[in-house]
Amino acid sequence: MNKILTLSLALAAITTGAIARKNDNNPFANKAGKQIHNNNVAGKTNANASRLLSSGTNIYDGNSYLLSDSSRYFYSGTRGFYNSLWEDWDYDTAKFMHFTSGAFRPTDRSYNQYNTTNKPTLMANEASDGSNWLPEDRTNITYDASGNVATYEYESNSGSGLANEYRVNASYDGSNKLISATEQEWDALNTIYQDAYRTTYSYNTNGDVLEEQYENFNGTSWDLTSRASYTYDANFNNTEILQENYNTGNWTPTYRSTNMFDPNNDLIKSMSEVYTSGNWQQTDESYFTYDGRHNAVTSEYRGYNGTAIIPSSYSTMTFNSYNQMLTLVSKSWDAAANQFELKQGDADMRWHYEEFPVGVNEVARQAKATFTVFPVPAANFVNISMNLEKPQGVFIVLQDISGKVLKTWNEAANKQFNKKLNTESIAPGNYIIKVMAGGEQYTQQVNIVK
């Protein structure tokens, strides 16, 4: 699915050398330090809110910016808040386009249906074949009496129409914190759902996630496979994420992300490491600066070249009065010039919003999350741009449509994160990019052409 500028949450279970999860749209996950069931509000007031209207991406070809991708969102009435549960806007319909042969041409469209409390109950996506809209996937959601997501059922189209793929069931404690999420995969032969994966969560007294444990079902019982642990400072900032694999009673570290914060509790540095041959090896580091409203206005990423950490990319961002991102411009490091310059594949991204009256209501604090993969289609490189609420270490996987893992990267995703993936050795075709962060999984399909 080439849904260019939207983001869906998913439950991730990471095992050694393979990804235990096989699908991507699952809300039962917690951001480090933030429960998914919480609605952040700025209070009850007569006010205007701001909702995303459109977005556009231009890609630098080495000489100038070229039009690449765009999206347009449509809403009903006062609907249009940012939904932190789904990491997307509560739109009615959305259209996504790619610029080719001198014009923007539709690639995908999405539509949502809601219940009487404005919670989505159906989320559907369709892909264009150039002439017709074809069903791509569909999600059905139910809620418990407290408004928590109770079940999440996903259908996909593998060429012969929509068919059941998996279902997730969630359980919560008395404070509505997610305690466990169990994924069941569809058994077409026996026409039933069978247990497959399970994630359990524990919290500190502040309600922040302390640990996520991942299990696989072996047919008769649950096998522990891995876990992610979170450490916080006195101000509840997430200072470390540690990922470990489980093997016959022992925990083996695999990945670690450490974060530094300024006196305003803004993330200013993040460092990622992988555990290899009994030692920690640094893979990258990121630096951030902020405006007076705690929006990250610059982001610098440095990567490991085999011998040292060197500069890689630099992004500048602007925001509106609602603290929503308006622009993101990326540049790449030029070693010869010893500075950041525009290079092929760098992006200029823009978001456009509209105000709408909400009356006496709980005005949602506008989030600033995006997940962008560009260019589409790609050739020798693919850029990932992310904007998250919390800093998180991430694990990036490139796999083919069959699920075979082709390449992996360990990175650091913070409030602003940009990464260029080298796909020069990858054959033309359709591939899946998965980004796993703090027990969540973000997925994007990409077409590679040569």
In words, what does this structure look like?
A hairpin with a 5-residue loop joins strand 20 and strand 21. The N terminus is likely disordered. This protein has one domain. The chain is mainly β and 450 residues long. The chain contains no helices and 32 strands.
Radius of gyration: 21 Å
Which residues sit in consecutive blocks of at least 5 with pLDDT less than 50?
A: 1-27, 29-46, 360-370
N- to C-terminal distance: 20 Å
The helical percent reads under 10%
Oligomer kind: single chain
The dominant shape is: globular
What's the number of helices? 0
Write the topology of this structure.
Elements: E1 14-15, E2 18-19, E3 41-60, E4 65-74, E5 82-83, E6 88-89, E7 93-100, E8 103-114, E9 120-128, E10 133-143, E11 149-157, E12 162-172, E13 178-187, E14 192-203, E15 209-217, E16 222-232, E17 238-247, E18 250-261, E19 267-276, E20 279-290, E21 296-304, E22 309-319, E23 325-334, E24 339-341, E25 347-364, E26 370-374, E27 381-387, E28 392-400, E29 405-413, E30 417-422, E31 429-437, E32 440-448
Antiparallel strand pairs: 1-2, 3-4, 3-25, 4-7, 5-6, 7-8, 8-9, 9-10, 10-11, 11-12, 12-13, 13-14, 14-15, 15-16, 16-17, 17-18, 18-19, 19-20, 20-21, 21-22, 22-23, 23-24, 23-25, 26-27, 27-30, 28-29, 28-31, 31-32
Can I get a quick summary?
The chain has 450 residues and is mainly β. The chain is built from no helices and 32 strands.
